[in-house]
UniProtKB/TrEMBL annotation:
Coiled-coil region list: none
Protein name (record): Oxidoreductase alpha (Molybdopterin) subunit
Keyword Metal-binding: yes
Organism: Kriegella aquimaris
Xref: PANTHER family: PROTEIN YDEP, RESPIRATORY NITRATE REDUCTASE
């Protein structure tokens, strides 16, 4: 049993700050964004360091932005190739605030758990390895060697390798992720849950099934050339701000943008590009030509209606669907059309909740265009029917023949800066037989053949006592996974939990019997070995592999690079007796890259090909090669409507990001574009619903969810009136994860239902003044 003193609350303290509301902004970026960029940079890093780092970020010889995975142009802008939120991510990692042994001696885990996630993150970079021993409430320093020996001893104690879990968050480099994935396999398990299980797994599944590759097909330049870009379930102004530059170029070239989203997000209204005079001094560029405010999780009826209307036009003129393409490259057209005929237009219209006039405009924009790109993110993936959502959008792309040519294709916009690369080099819970063959051939050991745990299975295994060691290469598993209390219990039942991390978060405070913190470098920092400056590689959202080399002085001389941490763990575990020379690889990353070329699919001559701006991995969709699919064809699919049903007093809640956070890392308390300042504990509600419930603006309420006879409660949120469909709510993650049941997730992909949680609003008048 755990020491009761360490049985700290899992959730975030429910404190309010002084909220201020204003009108949502009708543009993104502009002068204010530049000011915010500099403000965050200067406050955390000082002026000189800020400018040095910002001018190196995303340059060909610099480091890759640690924020999102959006691609870089072939020739990055010399005045700076970054956005406000990339700059915040940099300032957050390169902060001058540091915490080490003395800090932890004076602050117990209990005391630290009383801080909010925002306050925890503000404490700064962790500067030395630390251990929390059984029964103690204080982290104490530990030497690196002792830490590796402790981990090796615990791993040896397990009756089965399948009792260990190796989680990865998408910030790791290809090199670190490759070594980590290979160590897990050499140790004997495929238990490699990954942040992508909670993120784009639905995209990976849908794309693999229909197009034969789990990644998108477009390159950055394709967006510039597209005739129509659909942005569905994604908020680029906040989460992928540099994408707005690409949308702007599309518009300048005469293209059109369609936004499909329950919210009209500022970045899709208008963009004031800070790199241009028009953007800084003028009105900027209008982005979306049409905005379709779809009800949450009703994309399928909307798409069916759009496709039905296009089919009707197609019957009148030959131009609308690309019949040559359909005939040559796809399978399932007749079945799809037969199925579509069974739906009533009026019913689809009611379900999606969008005005017909807007749908007709959309159909008008799409009808005679074929260079179409669909971009999407979490608004499509994090539903029970996440995979089906994406398949339905792929139907539209296939019917229009919008693949395998410039300006057309699929664009799942990835989250973490290297989440795609981590998967490409072998972070996966499922078994890839070809990969295993290459591992045997080039690394000299046999990888396990049994499927491992993804995120939801890992939570359950720990909860049920079937897994006893949890190691995380980055991330914040506790706050990122659904059902915070359940996940906390799961972690607390482990014998050992290990966090390789840069900054403190709640996963360091709710731990197994023994816990380790292994501090590592951020992207922006110099990784030197024997006087040699090392670099790593990453893969962006468009499948391009590129090198990244930091330039700042590391936060401390006691931190270790991720590849070296993994190499040392492996070496200590195998006591030097293993076909892989782990230490040599941890020292010299070019040896890792050489093995990646041999073992991971598509990588080739990486060391030479990343010398300049990098290289694209092969992508069958770009060549219209569907030979790996049934009958060698891309698959049109039949997807049923969402089964989501709410009762009279229930709402559908989507848990989304504010403008001032990176996932569970909270940079600040403002959501400028949505007009909310100095508070995160808010719930956005349609004014009609506020009136119907007899609530007042800013009134304090609780939210409850009721799945499988279990009531879950998220306490104390202030009601914010907002333009959101009636019956729908939005609130920020991770504060709302307590509401999301661990055992409700997307079919096939197992992604938690973070964007369609059914909740009730519980009035709380006595809390009004809190
Ligand atoms: N600054 C910053 N950048 C980030 C991140 C961050 O936290 N901060 N996170 C990174 C990561 S890991 C990821 S995965 C991405 C996430 O990027 P996004 O997916 O843009 O992030 P969310 O805030 O989850 O936004 C989801 C969007 O989908 C909409 N939506 C919700 N439900 C539906 C629906 O049913 N249908 C449709 N059509 N739309 C819907 C919401 O209104 C919202 O605009 O961003 C990455 N980049
Ligand atoms: N309700 C709800 N839940 C969600 C989502 C949602 O939209 N709604 N989104 C989901 C998505 S899309 C994702 S991707 C997951 C995110 O899940 P995670 O990837 O697990 O979470 P992050 O918040 O990105 O992890 C932040 C931590 O990573 C560490 N870190 C930062 N940089 C580095 C580095 O360079 N190296 C190492 N080793 N550590 C580093 C820091 O300690 C920091 O505290 O959350 C998921 N959870
Ligand atoms: Mo993500």
């Amino acid at each position: 049993m755990n020491d009761p003193k360490r049985d700290v609350a899992a959730g975030i303290p429910e404190k309010f700050s002084n909220i201020r509301l204003s009108k949502p902004m009708d543009y993104a970026a502009g002068k204010l964004a530049v000011a915010k960029t500099l403000q965050h940079g200067f406050m955390e890093m000082g002026v000189v360091k800020s400018f040095r780092a910002l001018f190196s970020m995303n340059q060909n010889d610099g480091f890759d932005c640690p924020s999102c995975a959006w691609g870089d142009p072939e020739h990055p802008s010399k005045i700076g190739e970054y956005c406000e939120n990339g700059a915040k991510a940099l300032a957050d990692e390169a902060t001058n605030s540091h915490i080490g042994a003395t800090f932890f001696k004076n602050n117990s885990v209990e005391e630290l758990a009383r801080l909010t996630d925002y306050e925890l993150n503000k404490l700064g970079r962790i500067t030395e390895p630390l251990v929390l021993r059984p029964g103690s409430v204080y982290y104490a320093p530990i030497s690196w060697q002792e830490a590796f020996e402790l981990m090796a001893a615990e791993l040896h104690k397990l009756p089965s390798p399948d009792e260990a879990i190796f989680y990865t968050s998408g910030r790791s480099s290809n090199e670190a992720a490759f070594l980590y994935g290979m160590f897990a396999r050499a140790f004997g398990t495929n238990n490699m849950p990954d942040c992508s299980n909670m993120c784009h797994e639905s995209s990976g599944v849908a794309l693999s099934e229909t197009l034969g590759i789990g990644k998108g097909s477009v390159k950055l330049e394709d967006l510039h050339e597209a005739e129509v870009i659909i942005v569905a379930g994604q908020n680029p102004g906040t989460n992928h701000p540099r994408m707005l530059t690409a949308l702007e170029k599309c518009k300048e070239n005469g293209g059109h943008v369609i936004s499909i989203n329950p919210l009209e997000e500022s970045g899709l209204v208008r963009f004031k590009n800070p790199q241009t005079i028009k953007g800084m001094l003028g009105n900027g560029e209008q982005i979306a030509d049409v905005h379709l405010p779809v009800r949450i999780n009703q994309d399928i009826p909307l798409l069916k209606l759009i496709i039905k209307k296009l089919a009707l036009l197609d019957q009148k003129s030959e131009q609308v669907f690309d019949h040559n393409f359909i005939e040559k490259y796809t399978q399932g057209y007749n079945d799809l059309m037969t199925d579509l005929a069974t739906y009533e237009e009026a019913d689809l219209l009611v379900k999606c909740g969008v005005e017909e006039e807007l749908i007709n405009q959309t159909v008008g924009l799409l009808a005679n265009k074929s260079k179409i790109i669909v971009c999407w993110a979490m608004g499509l993936t994090q539903h029970k029917n996440g995979v089906a959502n994406i398949r339905e959008y792929i139907n539209l792309i296939l019917l229009k023949g919008a693949l395998g040519k410039p300006g057309a294709g699929t664009c799942p916009v990835r989250g973490h800066s290297n989440v795609q690369g981590d998967r490409s080099v072998g972070i996966m819970h499922f078994v890839d037989k070809d990969l295993n063959k290459r591992i045997a051939e080039h690394l000299g050991f046999n990888a396990p053949e049994k499927e491992g745990f993804d995120v939801v299975k890992a939570m359950q295994a720990m909860h049920e006592g079937k897994a006893k060691i949890f190691m995380a290469l980055g991330g914040n598993f506790l706050m990122a996974a659904s059902d915070t209390e359940y996940t906390a219990d799961a972690l607390k039942r482990c014998d050992l939990t290990v966090q390789v991390s840069t900054k403190l978060n709640r996963s360091h405070l709710v731990t197994g019997k023994t816990a380790l913190i292994l501090p590592t470098f951020g992207r922006s920092e110099k990784d030197e070995k024997a006087g040699e400056l090392r670099y790593i590689t990453v893969e962006n959202s468009m499948g391009k592999v590129k090198k990244s080399r930091g330039l700042l002085k590391p936060a401390s001389n006691k931190i270790m690079s991720e590849p070296e941490i993994v190499a040392n763990l492996a070496h200590t575990y195998f006591k030097g007796n293993h076909p892989v020379d782990w230490i040599a690889m941890g020292d010299d990353y070019s040896l890792i890259r050489d093995k990646i070329d041999k073992v991971a699919k598509g990588f080739d001559s990486t060391e030479q090909r990343i010398k300049n701006s990098g290289y694209y991995l092969p992508n069958n969709v770009r060549n219209l090669d569907f030979s790996m699919l049934p009958n060698g064809k891309a698959q049109l699919t039949i997807n049923s409507l969402s089964e989501l049903r709410t009762k009279k007093d229930e709402f559908v809640l989507m848990t989304i990001r504010s403008h001032d956070q990176f996932n569970t890392t909270i940079y600040g308390l403002d959501d400028r574009y949505r007009g909310v300042y100095n508070e995160r504990r808010v719930v956005f509600m349609n004014p009609k619903d506020i009136k119907k419930l007899g609530l007042k603006d800013l009134e304090v309420v609780d939210m409850t969810s009721h799945y499988d006879n279990t009531k879950r409660t998220a306490k104390k949120f202030k009601i914010v009136p907002y333009a959101i469909p009636v019956g729908n709510l939005a609130a920020y993650y991770p504060e709302t994860n307590v509401l999301i049941p661990y055992n409700h997730f997307a079919d096939q992909s197992h992604t938690p239902i973070s964007k369609s949680v059914i909740v009730k609003i519980v009035g709380n008048r006595e809390l009004e003044t809190v």
